[in-house]
């Protein structure tokens, strides 16, 4: 029988690195020996963990700030030990969490136009771990709920709005936790641990729902993430140190749905998952390639699509949420690849001849509005992400008009009636161009104000120093 090629609109996904002038150059990427991605991205900013003497720091750059980054560029530098993991809040593009070797988690509010001065004061410090904190992960649908996991083998779930630890899962793991992943509605988490077990946990009931011993038999680190349908996808190593990927059904974890062996590289495979297209991108630390696979309901379930290859190995990788992509160019994923001294965006597109909006590539996706308040989630409620269409709201420039991202969610809780449909926010039938111009003008005015504030501060400092000099001279 002649073999028929499987039909898929993602068979020809095409990866391309941007030109040099669109990279972020001269960045000293962290050398800390920890298997996190070192980079977090949202539609406004890219954050990168960097080398810092006497503590831990990360850079937060507006997406348009490409080119060479000056050594004096302000950083977020409140930790007293190296930063190990960072994660942007999915419900506010100006809020980022960081976990560090100093055993704390800090949550930061980034100014609207980026940093003009280094940020040393977090909005809140979350203390509860007794060893370094290597994992931070925001809840996908509940506002102000943050998970952290440390080398004390404990997982703590915080209400960031109050600064309280509301759940402490400290007796479920007997060895180091490699990673933690929320499911689609945030009712369950799955973890991969050094004891070679993959666990599915109900955090509010504080019980293990399912677990698999020796999901991958090799000794090197594993990763486990939830897929949209509730299955769990894992990467790890075989006993012969071959890299593997596997798909599991939490209702029956005796045998994997699929298990594939890939190669004998020793870098940990970091999985990035797009629930809208069911594509998983695997980025190996120290590899110079990104492999991508499509997950379907038909055997063999995990279908290899293609590999994006480049010359330089990657130190880490950032992954842009769907609402930050350019739908006009049929872009289905954007990665931010960390080299030793720079960050290079890589754009994945599906070639299409038509210039029209491709609704088969862009089903409604998770938007920036939280579906639940923290208290509702802790009381036992669940909710799927509030979806938005990418057809209108995300032409570059327009996303600034979505007021949701401008609120400081950490200071004030919005009233229930503000949960409007995001796409109906710009109700005025103003011309799109004038709205865009207003937003640009607003941004310029804010930047002028922040520069003036900086100048005032520097003037005060100069006059103080002059006074000190006069005293010494006298």
Automatic annotation (TrEMBL):
UniProt keyword annotations, A-Z = Coiled coil, Repeat, WD repeat
Query: InterPro entries, per this entry?
Result: Coronin (IPR015505), DUF1899 (IPR015048), WD40/YVTN_repeat-like_dom_sf (IPR015943), WD40_repeat_CS (IPR019775), WD40_repeat_dom_sf (IPR036322), WD40_rpt (IPR001680)
SMART domains according to UniProt: DUF1899, DUF1900, WD40
Bilayer-crossing residues are: none
Where does the record place its WD repeats?
76-118, 126-168, 170-211
Q: Which GO terms describe its molecular function?
A: actin filament binding
Q: Does the keyword Signal apply?
A: no
Positions of the DUF1899 domain: 3-67
Query: Which BP terms does GO give this entry?
Result: actin filament organization; negative regulation of cellular component organization; neural crest cell migration
Q: Name one Pfam family in it.
A: DUF1899
Gene Ontology CC: lamellipodium
Q: Which family does it belong to?
A: Belongs to the WD repeat coronin family.
Recorded protein name is Coronin
What is the species listed in this Swiss-Prot or TrEMBL entry? Cebus imitator (Panamanian white-faced capuchin)
